[in-house]
Amino acid sequence: MKNFFSKTLTVLCAVGAAALFCAAPIMAAQTLKIGAIIAETGPASFLGQPEAKTLRMLTDEINAKGGVAGKFKVELLLKDSAGQKSKAVSFARQLIEEDHVFAILGPTRSGSTLAIKNICEKNKTILISCASTKKIVDPVASYVFKTPQNDSLAVRMIYREMKSKGISKIAVVVGGTGFGKMGRMFLNKLAPEYGIKVIMNESYSPRATDLSSLVTKLMAHPEIQAVVNWSIVPAQTILAKNMRQRKWNVPLYQSHGFGNIKYVQIGGPATEGIIFPAGRLLVADSLDANNPQQAVLLKYKKDYEAKYKEPVSTFGGHAYDAFNILCKAVNQAGTLNEEKVRSTIEHMTFIGTGGVFHFSPTDHSGLKLDAFDMLTVKNGHFALYK
Amino acid sequence: MSTELFFQYFSAGITYGFLYAIVAIGFNIIYNATGIINFAQGEFVMLGGMTAISLYPFMPLPLAIVAAVIITTIIGALVEIIFIRWLDNPSVLRMIIITIGLSILIREAALFVWGESVRSLPYFNGNSISSINIMGANVSPQVLWVIGVCAVMVTILSLFFQLSTLGREMRACAANRLAATLCGINTRNRITLSFMLSAAIGAAAGCVMSPITYSQYDMGPGLAIKGFTVAILGGLGNSMAAVAAGLLLGLVESFSVMVLPQSYQEIIATSILLLVLFIRPHGLFGNKDTAALKEF
């Protein structure tokens, strides 16, 4: 009798174990595990927060519809890098090696993305970054993509605008972050093409509390016709304030890192008249009806603002694009095979918030100069600059 | 360099200087009563600013600031009563570590309450672009507020610690707590009072500087380092000296921008702090012999 029991038990265990083993791969095949490394806190939180909110919103939305392609439920593993490179690197390893995610979205910042670019490439994990610098996709790494417009394109937009106004002598001021450094490089590199001379190159601490002495240093060069302030940290509005307080009224150009209305809110009237290149999300309401992006922009804006009761920012849009590019590719490939999904992205056209993406094996950013419009601040709101 | 540029740099330096001095004064009050440095001073500044910003939509600005100062004062008292009062004759090192722990605690609590975002109070006069022309330099009116508030606080505090009985009793607590107790001074209450005073001053500072520097939950440590540097540079415990030292640091930082990138400003303050600690730990205006008698 005892023998019978133990035999039955053994068989049952074996069956149970086998069932578990068989079930495991089936279960795994049903979930699309997406890792996300977002700077939800820290100095880049004006970028990271809307990104994280957007990703959570989209995950809920798509799971409510039964998942990607109707069968893959999305599991979002969102990690807060606090904007730190070292944290981004350890989260990337954790997501790849322990959580075995299918793809990683983010990081928010350029420096963090460059730090994990090779890790993702080596492990054949798809990375769709929400950071801007061109270096992320140049040189091309086969598994690494990005959604924000290249910083070099933003520089070209600014320089084109300056050229049309006859501005030829400028000062470049950057926030001391990865984004700032890359911006400074492209600003200096591309200036001669547009007949522009960079008279001064300055940088400020991301934690700066007042920049009037820096403004004074720039004002000592009366030949400066415009200032480019290339930064993603809140201190970028301090420069605007201190310039206007000193009654220095040269045109102030900022980067696409200014595209969150919160910067305007804390900077107040000093931000009036700032000119910057950005995707069309911020002016979605005033676009022509025949603009191909209009439907996408209005839907995202409506969903986000209804859910979170705050205005959309371009940064949330970058996360929106990254998430949807991945989902669209999985949908088209119909399988969770990294290589297939990767090559699907490479041949995809996608209408997103940042512009109309045309990916190719040599272009993992997919956006051209037409993704940008020049915007300005008018009465405390973003408006098209004409 | 033209005189106009000189005055622009000069006025920027004065602004920085008073911002640092106003934080340093808070350090000095607690030092005067306990002989320790309260490393949560920067958090009091943050709490004042953030509370005022939260209250501002519901009441006029002056009222919001007063309420924020009162609330922060109460928090200062609670902090002392809960974490420090019951300690029996604590060592200086232990007290310092407690205040560092407190600063982390308050910061995390603030993150929980207010989140990440950067906020600011509106400018008291005019807005972010208004400025007043003083000797060719354009200065934001808010800077005058900072200078005014700082001047009033320093004057009142100096008089308080030198002339009033209560102030003298507080200094006695720091000099020799046992002797003070034997003289009939309730040392515990005096120390609670010192925390309340320094919290109040920190909060007021947090409100006047908010339009210039913005406020966010983690602004404390940065301010504390600058304030600490200034307090040490001037000589601990002396509020007048703190203003002088603050101006010195502010001017050095401002003029350094002429030759160094602005991003190196932090390095200058830290280098000065280290230099002073090595060469003249009793500060520029402190007395070496008096300092030698103190534990810290």
Brief rundown of the structure:
Chain A is α/β, with parallel strands linked by helices.
Characterization of this structure:
The complex is a heterodimer of chains A (386) and B (296). Chain A is α/β, with parallel strands linked by helices and 386 residues long. Chain A is built from twelve helices and 14 strands. Chain A has helices at residues 2-30, 45-64, 85-98, 110-122, 151-165, 178-190, 212-219, 236-245, 261-267, 294-308, 314-333, 338-346, and strands at residues 31-38, 73-80, 103-105, 126-129, 144-146, 169-175, 197-204, 226-230, 252-254, 275-278, 349-351, 356-358, 373-378, 381-384. A five-stranded parallel sheet of chain A has the order 2-1-3-4-5, sandwiched between helices. In chain A, strand 11 (349-351) and strand 12 form a beta hairpin. Chain A is globular. In chain B, helix 1 crosses helix 6 (165-175), helix 1 (3-34) packs antiparallel against helix 8 and helix 6 crosses helix 8. Chain B has helices at 3-34, 41-55, 61-84, 92-114, 141-163, 165-175, 177-182, 187-213, 220-234, 239-256, 265-279, 288-293, and strands spanning 132-134, 137-139. By secondary structure, chain B is an all-alpha fold. Chain B is globular. The mean pLDDT of chain B is 89. The A-B interface holds A 40-42, 45-46, 49, 176, 202-205, 207-217, 219-220, 234, 238, 241, 244-247, 262, 266-270 and B 1, 5, 8-9, 11-13, 15-16, 19, 111, 116-120, 122-123, 127-131, 138-140, 209, 212-214, 216, 222, 253-255, 257-258, 261-263, 265-266.
Structural class of chain B: mainly alpha
Rg on CA atoms of chain B, Å = 19 Å
Under CATH, the homologous superfamily of the largest domain in chain A reads Response regulator
CATH architecture annotation name of the largest domain in chain A: 3-Layer(aba) Sandwich
Radius of gyration of chain A: 24 Å
Mean pLDDT of chain B: 89
Strand arrangement, largest sheet of chain A? 2-1-3-4-5
Number of strands of chain A: 14
State the secondary-structure class of chain A: alpha/beta
> For the largest interface in this structure, which chains are involved and how many residues does each contribute?
A-B, 37 and 42 residues
- How many distinct helices of chain B? 12
- List low-confidence stretches of chain A: 20-28
Q: So what's the overall shape of chain B?
A: globular
Return residue spans of chain B where pLDDT drops below 50 for at least 5 consecutive residues: none
Broad CATH class of the largest domain in chain A: Alpha Beta
CATH fold-type name of the largest domain in chain A:
Rossmann fold
